[in-house]
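FAQ

Q: What does a record look like?
A: Structure on top, sequence underneath. For example:
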């Protein structure tokens, strides 16, 4: 899994590219931090740790996460599984789940999982953001 970390000393942002569905929530919410046209594309010095954590918590796929002072961030466990339909986007399942494909099964322990609805993902059954190019 392609994973990168960006830190400002107070908070470390973890980006897992394979989970990203390119919803744009991060860029729309903090355009002074998330700059996909630049390298590095995450520039933490332009915001506060609290604002950054709040925006990362809005990531629908879980591709963005964070931890403070070397302790992994834990989201509050979901009391029940919740399924959310994103308009013109994926189906998002909040909570732990088991994904079974053929004879194999995999436990997803991320707080949320995004599933492809358009059929264009190259990472099926998971969304990779291909729906944006399908219109």
């Amino acid at each position: 899994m392609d994973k990168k970390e960006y830190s400002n000393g107070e908070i470390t942002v973890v980006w897992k590219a394979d989970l990203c569905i390119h919803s744009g929530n991060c860029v729309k919410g903090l355009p002074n931090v998330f700059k996909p046209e630049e390298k590095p594309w995450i520039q933490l010095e332009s915001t506060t740790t609290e604002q950054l954590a709040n925006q990362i918590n809005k990531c629908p796929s879980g591709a963005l996460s964070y931890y403070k002072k070397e302790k992994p961030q834990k989201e509050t466990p979901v009391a029940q599984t919740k399924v959310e339909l994103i308009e013109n986007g994926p189906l998002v399942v909040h909570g732990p789940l088991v994904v079974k494909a053929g004879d194999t099964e995999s436990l997803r322990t991320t707080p949320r999982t995004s599933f492809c609805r358009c059929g264009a993902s190259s990472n099926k059954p998971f969304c990779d953001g291909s729906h944006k190019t399908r219109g």
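Q: Is there anything notable about this one?
A: The chain has a mean pLDDT of 84.
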